[in-house]
Specification:
Layout lengths: L1 E4 L5 H14 L6 H13 L4 E9 L2 E15 L4 E11 L8 H16 L4 E3 L6 H9 L16
Parallel strand pairs: 4-5
Antiparallel strand pairs: 1-2, 2-3, 3-4
Helix pairs in contact: 1-2
């Protein structure tokens, strides 16, 4: 298994993973819209995507990804990354793929964002929270997050 920072040429490997990730969060499959969304993020350098893949019997297949977005803190006067998406195919879970993707994400954040990296998790996603705890993240309870829908 290898992990790379993805470019547009890797979209065919990322797309089925991204679609499965969205379905995990109860969204309908939409390969066309997902492809446009990811291509726009990569073309405009609006996110960083790390892709875990393997090459077996001459075939390359994606096995997991993370997607990060950069943002800023007016209070701290610094930039930081938000790890928004993390997904590993079911048949590759529990073998360290997610941890390696997290390590790459942390490396990116620590190299070029003085404030670091933030992750948000559903309260019910205990396995993700266990992973975040195991790689050094600390749960913050000082803020509430509010969301305004259309």
């Amino acid at each position: 298994m290898d992990i790379i920072r993805a470019t547009e040429e890797h979209l065919p490997l990322i797309l089925p993973l991204f679609d499965a990730y969205r379905q995990f969060y109860e969204q309908p499959s939409d390969l066309e819209a997902s492809s446009l969304y990811l291509a726009e993020r990569l073309t405009n350098q609006e996110s960083a995507i790390f892709l875990a893949y393997e090459q077996k019997d001459g075939e390359v297949r994606g096995i997991g990804f993370t997607q990060l977005y950069v943002t800023f803190s007016s209070v701290a006067l610094k930039k930081f990354w938000v790890l928004h998406d993390l997904y590993v195919r079911e048949d590759f879970r529990k073998i360290g793929v997610a941890k390696k993707l997290m390590d790459k994400s942390k490396e990116l954040a620590l190299e070029n964002a003085p404030m670091g990296l933030v992750i948000e998790s559903r309260i019910s996603n205990q396995s993700a929270q266990h992973l975040f705890d195991s790689v050094g993240f600390v749960k913050q309870g000082e803020h509430y997050f509010y969301f305004l829908e259309d």
